[in-house]
């Protein structure tokens, strides 16, 4: 991967994380943990990979994105803001009365959202529909969907998994954010979805496993996904819930709770320090 | 009079539709032989997508197709489209206001021999609670075909309800015009109004004819669009006839009867008597005998009319 690009993406990812903290702190609610764990992935999608244009959010040939784990909307809003779809300052309105930034993503509320999600297990089905529509019609767009690892407990995910491989949806790429935690604790204590890799393989998908916080691995995975023909690809990314905010990392407790004033200041200080260090290099 | 099941009409209408809407996608959940999307699949295999026995995913897929601007009809039995997949219909179709047409067949107890597990008498109630959902329940072959074609031009979530049992084709195909949201007055009358939907529309006409012989003048209104409801026509009937009987092959809880009662009680209070499936499950048996047992017949309507007018 190009060094400049890598540095630029890494710095953008820090800004995306700041936007997540800003939103959740101001909302006094929301889901920071799983938003932070997908921040690098989302940065790569919105700042490097996807064919999108903030000036033309509805263009027919745009790549589609579905946040199947819709509760991590703070991350989606932050990438959309940093990418120019909405003002960055608007992130502070998250979950407030009258805000366009609903607790879970809503199609057409703000530009750049292709599907309303939030009820787990449904986004991946909609992504299958978008992919089928494009494939049958000869469209060039690709479809990306991000799922949580806890979300894999929903049976509907596996209906969609069966469907996508049956119809050979090679224009579809799903990502499973394997941060290992859900609201009630560790995913393998609550209801184990493991072995995740073998399950997707058994359903006929091309499976790629990566570390979620390494842009080189992310780039390689998507490039492989793009060249895969005749079957859909799933990228299983091993991630750290709450990544880059020390006291949130690896804590199920931070699945759905906002930082207080002190915690907010600490999180922003930590992220600013990371950014300053990068800028210094 | 010729009898045709509206599910047959549905399959035929899809074949007509694809000729003017080549972007049409038809989905089914392994019941194409029964929903009659098979009629479409045979002629248009490249536009037909079997989703297997997964109604929830099928409706999610339909939402995704609709989000790309293409026309999609998704079919399953009413029990599973509206019942099992209710929350998918609400959150992935209703809430994002996506242009998905749900073609639900085998509604009501006239499913017959399959029994209560497959006899859906709750779908209208469920679909009515979703903001922005249009609900169409055609009464015969002519109306069903016209409704499918008309709804293809309408942008928004739509639930179309079809039956398994062949029913009389009483509308004239040459003159019939489907108007979304408009009730059809099939017979005028002053003493009472019978508001019916689906397979009880024709028995309502028969009931009115018989009542006329006994000197009772009954107005008959066919409500094919249950939501949005033709409030104006219903309120006019309430004011002019003073008494209403609502007949439907659906639970008396939450169906057309409830919708009519809601409107009438607020804006023109008059007695409303509901004929439908009472708060109980159906069971196996030939459809026609089941309809008789549950009173969903011409005689059943007459009985309710006499009750409401106090005779």
- Overall pLDDT of chain A, averaged? 97
CATH fold annotation of the largest domain in chain B: Rossmann fold
Q: Quick one: biggest sheet of chain B?
A: 7 strands, mixed
Taken as a percent bin, the fraction of beta residues of chain B is 15-25%
Portion of residues within helices of chain A: 40-55%
Gross morphology of chain A: globular
Number of helices of chain B: 13
Count of DSSP helices of chain A? 10
Portion of residues in helices of chain B? Answer: 40-55%
* Residue-averaged pLDDT of chain B: 97
Q: For the record, give the distance between the C-alpha atoms at the N and C termini of chain B, rounded to a whole number.
A: 31 Å
Low-confidence stretches of chain B: none
What oligomeric state best describes the polypeptide chains here?
heterodimer
The CATH topology annotation of chain A reads as Rossmann fold
Describe this entry's structure for a reader.
The complex is a heterodimer of chains A (281) and B (311). Chain A has a single domain (3-280), classed as Rossmann fold (3-Layer(aba) Sandwich), CATH 3.40.50.970. With 281 residues, chain A is α/β, with parallel strands linked by helices. The relative contact order of chain A is 0.16. Chain A has ten helices and seven strands. Chain A has helices spanning 3-27, 32-37, 39-49, 73-82, 123-137, 155-166, 187-191, 196-202, 215-227, 261-280; strands at residues 64-67, 143-148, 172-178, 181-182, 185-186, 206-211, 233-238. Chain A has a five-stranded parallel β-sheet, sandwiched between helices. The longest helix of chain A is centred in the first third of the chain and has 25 residues, at 3-27. In chain A, strand 6, helix 9 and strand 7 form a beta-alpha-beta unit. Chain B folds into two domains: 3-168, Rossmann fold, CATH 3.40.50; 184-309, Rossmann fold (3-Layer(aba) Sandwich), CATH 3.40.50.920. Chain B has 13 helices and 14 strands. Chain B has helices spanning 6-20, 32-35, 37-43, 55-67, 78-84, 86-94, 123-128, 141-152, 201-213, 231-241, 256-267, 287-293, 298-309, and strands at residues 3-4, 25-28, 48-50, 72-77, 100-105, 134-136, 158-161, 167-168, 184-187, 192-196, 218-222, 225-227, 244-251, 272-277. In chain B, the strands form three sheets. In chain B, strands 3-2-4-5-7-6-12 form a seven-stranded mixed β-sheet, with helices on both faces. Chain B has a five-stranded mixed β-sheet with strand order 9-11-10-13-14, sandwiched between helices. A two-stranded antiparallel sheet of chain B has the order 1-8. The interface between A and B is medium-sized, with 33 and 30 residues.
